[in-house]
Specification:
alpha/beta, Rossmann fold, five-stranded parallel sheet, 8 helices, about 15% strand, globular
């Protein structure tokens, strides 16, 4: 593909999944910064930001969550077809949703990173107090409280952000990803 030759990189998707407040966005921003420092072109797609714009018409029902992930996967496919690395930070709570995303994107362009951070740690990090609101019934269908989260069975990378810092997590992911994206890098 001509864009990949121009950019000297392969289009690729780094899909980060985990409970709310597990560290997906922090890891995504760290990866974006590191990739930029190394001369790669990437785009961070974050669940909160996407829901403010293109997916603002969607709620948190099972069907709306599937549509949210489907749209993100389609956007990601457009990016990788232009040789861009897409860093996707989404709860994507079910195995079915993540398989759908991988199928849309293509498994050869997809890496799944599971943040296995315990729910107790996520609750402590929750400065918006979403977990407390969900426990009081003020937020419905909140993943980890009254909506399920299905852990990936075979993620490419598993990280517990209670144990690893953001820089350590970034380095772990970069060690896995760089050989996959740099086939055309000079």
């Amino acid at each position: 593909m001509i864009q990949e030759k121009i950019l000297h990189q392969r289009g690729f998707v780094i899909w980060i999944t985990g409970l709310p407040c597990s560290g997906k966005t922090s890891l995504g921003k760290g990866l974006e910064e590191k990739l930029t420092q190394l001369g790669y072109v990437s785009c961070l797609l974050d669940g909160d930001e996407i829901r403010k714009g293109i997916n603002r018409d969607l709620g948190f029902s099972e069907e709306d969550r599937k549509e949210n992930i489907r749209r993100v996967a389609e956007i990601s496919r457009l990016l990788i077809n232009r040789g861009i690395i897409s860093i996707n930070c989404f709860v994507s709570p079910t195995i079915e949703m993540r398989v759908m995303a991988r199928d849309i994107i293509g498994k050869e362009h997809f890496v799944e990173i599971f943040l296995s951070t315990p729910v107790e740690v996520c609750k402590r990090r929750d400065f918006k107090e979403m977990y407390k609101k969900a426990e009081r019934g003020e937020i419905k269908n909140f993943t980890g409280i009254d909506a399920p989260y299905e852990k990936p069975k075979n993620p490419d990378i598993k990280i517990n952000t209670e144990i690893l810092t953001v820089p350590e997590s970034v380095n772990k992911v970069m060690g896995f990803v760089i050989p996959r994206i740099s086939s055309a890098k000079r």
